[in-house]
Amino acid sequence: MDVQDTIVAAATPAGRSALAVVRIDGPLAYELSAKGLGRSAPLPERRAAAAVWRDLRGEPVDQVVAVRWAAGRSFTGGDTLELTCHGNPLLVRRIVEDLLARGARMAEPGEFTRRAYLAGRMDLTQAEGVADLIHANGERALEAARRLLAGELGRLVAAWSERLLSTLATLEAHIDFPEEDLPAEDPRGPAAALAALASELSEYARTARHDAALRGGLRVAVVGAPNAGKSSLLNALTGAARALVSPEAGTTRDWIEAPVGGLPLAVTAVDTAGLREGGGAVERAGMERSLEQAESAHFLLLVVDASAPPPSLPPRLTTALRPGRCLIVANKSDLPQHPALPSFMPNAPRVKACLLDSRDGERLRAALAAALVDADLAPGADELVVSVRHADALRRAAGALEDARSLLNAPARTELAAERCREALDALGEIVGRIDNERMLDKLFASFCIGK
């Protein structure tokens, strides 16, 4: 992956659209584009110019709009040109193939963003924010990606590094200049500073528990007895008649899933077969699948008929309804409440509903969103979530700082403590990319889109 190569790729998804963008970056970008556009002089910088793109034979390919950015002022830091053409995949392919024939090569996944990182246009966390922004599938994931791209984590790492360098300077002064007129060495101050920093790093590392939910979303199983209103709840959450609703018991024989919109992160609701004793072979098979879905889901919505005696639940479902992982939806709340309902799972949070009323959907989605945050399955709105990679580096840094703090409490171990502090600095540097690790960069940018 040579930064001196001129690379080209479509920066918009494959398929038909009104417009498409072809991105060219590298030292030959202007020369190749000038030939394709039939210009003898370079395009004006950062000004759109309309022209006809012609291939090597001089045949017109498409009318395009071209914009150039000079080195030092482009996204990548190098000479860059973007061509906007009509969104027919055949036209995009012909323009890309023509540029390849003129001397460019096909960009690898994430190569444009990697060039921006290598040119110092962004740190590694911001580069990851680019990919996260593209792939985010919920508002909370979008916000987390925006914060990464804005450099919030990078600024935190810089502040942590400065604090650590200040403490390290104090330690090394006593190591390097023991005969100088310095105050007597007192390890308590540096040890307290290292302990406080280690605690802060560990706290941020713990936010990675939400990383999988932001990236992949959560599965919420809707469970309960037959005719409790499970299918009605699925329809209310999704805002569509996704599941068949009938007063006949055992209507749902298999699980049905659908995405729930209007939540801060991606959630898939799974409607399951009603759980009861007896039933035919097909219904029993459906109940077995319901229990499997309940056991594998991140969260459970237990629908109960508020006007009827509390249901008798199978032991496997009772086990899956563990504390902090379920919300009781008391349906048919327009009817008189059964006197035994308050004593049924009294410690589980619950929400009243009348699923015949289509207006309940928004209120139920809000209740589900709040329950997921309370269950610590989703991050709060103001919480900065780090990735698994970031968390690994933060934990290693925190561990090194804890080791350094312990060494300071032992006599004549200042030099060893300083070495552990330097290891912590290296771990923090990995987060923003100050430590050059080619294999790590290859793996990270391989997950990006081609053309980004």
How does this structure look, described?
The protein has 452 residues and is of the alpha/beta class. The protein has helices at residues 29-37, 89-101, 111-118, 124-135, 139-149, 152-176, 188-205, 211-216, 230-238, 281-296, 315-320, 360-374, 388-408, 414-432, 438-445; strands at 7-10, 17-25, 49-54, 60-69, 80-87, 105-106, 218-224, 256-260, 267-271, 299-305, 326-331, 350-352. The protein is flat and about 85 Å long. The chain starts with 6 loop residues before the first strand and ends in a 7-residue tail after the last helix. The mean pLDDT is 85.
Give the full name of the CATH homologous superfamily of the largest domain.
P-loop containing nucleotide triphosphate hydrolases
How many distinct helices? 15
Task: List low-pLDDT spans.
Answer: none
Biggest sheet layout: 6 strands, mixed
Q: Structural class of the helices, strands and pairings?
A: alpha/beta
